[in-house]
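User: Second chain of the day. Same drill as before.
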Amino acid sequence: MSFDRVNWVWMNGEIVQWSKATIHVSTHALHYGTGVFFEGIRCYETPEGPAVFRLEEHLDRLFASAQLHGVKLPYLRNEVGSAVCQVIQANQFSSCYIRPIVFFGSGALTLHPRNCPVEVVVMAWPWAPLLGQGGLEHGVRVTVSPWRKFHPRMMPATAKASGQYVNSVLAVRDAVERGFDEALLLNVEGGVAEGPGENLFLVRDGRIRTNGARHSILMGITRDSVMTIASDLGYDVDEGALSVEELALADEAFLTGTAAEVTPIREVDGIPVGRGFPGEVTRLVQQAFFAAVRGQSARYRRWLHFVDECWFDGACSAMPWI
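Assistant: Same format as last time:
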């Protein structure tokens, strides 16, 4: 990850220089983690120009997270969508990672942010796969974290809220300090929940399994895409609680997420998964996923939002809700 090529940021309704996209030290989100919610989105280079992958679904989740936290955004969905396109074009990116974030700004430092403005920022920058190109090709080494994933009754697991990622940061730091690439968190019931920023899939006897909404996971958009792709490839995809025993017996395992894309797991706590390298099912799903995001599959063209089709007057011509 590098911010060296980033010159422009969309901040509260206008494009501003990177160096001027600043906040005050009294910002509520800085003190209490009320960077209420954010999204991670990728834009890919395609034969028809840069295209944002499943922008509509990411915006839906952003606004759903806001509603779940009782926050009203000061912008419409199409305005935030247009902001995404503006940032990509202003920085002249053909591919990038995009981070819309909504947070309570400076106004007061009581726990209730009622007197704090709701601020909205959209950033974009070049970002290679989260776990590295080598991770995509050869798989990663993961460890079961001593930290547990929080239960949905503690805070909404289905919302992508900034403060809850302290849980993920703790798990990642522990894993890296012990020499692993990534962590897996168990839920409070002792089942396998997900990675710090990824959903988990297991493959056993040609069947694919992943957690459901009740199992302390974020309902990932890449997860949903992979489930559709796998089903289209002819695989059975089941949702249900994943146990540590199932993880140990899996023929294949992989992580999915906007940042991680589709990354195979080659071992867990030093024990190989299957034969210790990415398996056939993982490879086929991964290949189909990258064909989809890069505009090489007509079947999934509906998931691509082409940046050049955006207007810059607060709307976006490719968005069906306009």
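The two ends are 34 Å apart (CA to CA).

User: Great, on to the next one.
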